[in-house]
Amino acid sequence: MLRLTKKADYGLMALKYLAEHPDSVSVSAKDIADTYGIPPQLLAKVLQRLTKVGLLRSHAGMNGGYELSREARRISAFEVIHAIDGPLFITSCTKGSKSCDLEPNCTIKEPLARVNESIAGVLKSISIYDLVDAETAAGRSAEMLVTLMHS
Amino acid sequence: MLRLTKKADYGLMALKYLAEHPDSVSVSAKDIADTYGIPPQLLAKVLQRLTKVGLLRSHAGMNGGYELSREARRISAFEVIHAIDGPLFITSCTKGSKSCDLEPNCTIKEPLARVNESIAGVLKSISIYDLVDAETAAGRSAEMLVTLMHS
DNA sequence: CAGTATAGGACTGATTTTGTCGCAGTTCAA
DNA sequence: TTGAACTGCGACAAAATCAGTCCTATACTG
Lengths: 151, 151
Fold this sequence. Notes:
The structure is a homodimer. Chain A has 7 helices and 2 strands; from the N terminus they run αααββαααα. By secondary structure, chain A is mostly helical.
């Protein structure tokens, strides 16, 4: 439960790949798909969406491909996931603007909104760069938070 | 994306209801389903599962129903969600014990494990009681964490 | 122009989620 | 002791979502 779609996974992996290859001017969707064994056309769509929201810059034609539009350190996992999977709602009732259709009202929605924010916060604190170098400050801070919350 | 199933929602709502009615010896699935407009048989299954994992005590027969097996303060949202939706994995690749089937290896899985733990931590810090009284310490601590992470 | 890429719509199949049905066992109370 | 009101559970059906493919158009390079 509570898991990312494969598309979001693919997107994060692709961005990580791009962050690891800053030398290459641009990398094609096929290149990335091949190295990870991802269906190329599916990854292409994911990258197209990430381009649309401005996280990537695309370059059509021969030797074309994608590149990060910002440095990896300034792209959060949240942005990627949000772009691909849509808005983050932990409760199944909150569908966009419309309120819960359950009778009196979804009495649980409001208190869980905080949880939602907490999770979004965690995701926002993780950058693509953190995926490359797992031993980074943000990673450690996330760990710290866990222990902090357990206390 | 990243949302609970309706079953988990129903489960949380039901537990909250039970926490709000400690006077009643036991409440039937139908009672709760009626007050919230939830399909009764579906809620019944959810409650059966929660009983199975020991969060509820059931009582068959006339005037039967369910009651919390512990005080609301000592039942976490995590336990409920875990019981209903299964283990919490943010990456779609981590299916149980088996590692990712993506080619070299899902390079993203390991760094996201921390995120997973952070989210689990947030969920563990929220009790059923917190859902009843949204202005509780744990709720505030969760809020605090969000601001802390944004800094 | 030929080849390689992105852009994107339409569509199909797989998987998951949601909800229903039917039946067996339990308890209570008239 | 019988029937109504419950839980417990497996099998199914319906609906929604996700994953993946196909096809066509367009853009850029040499």
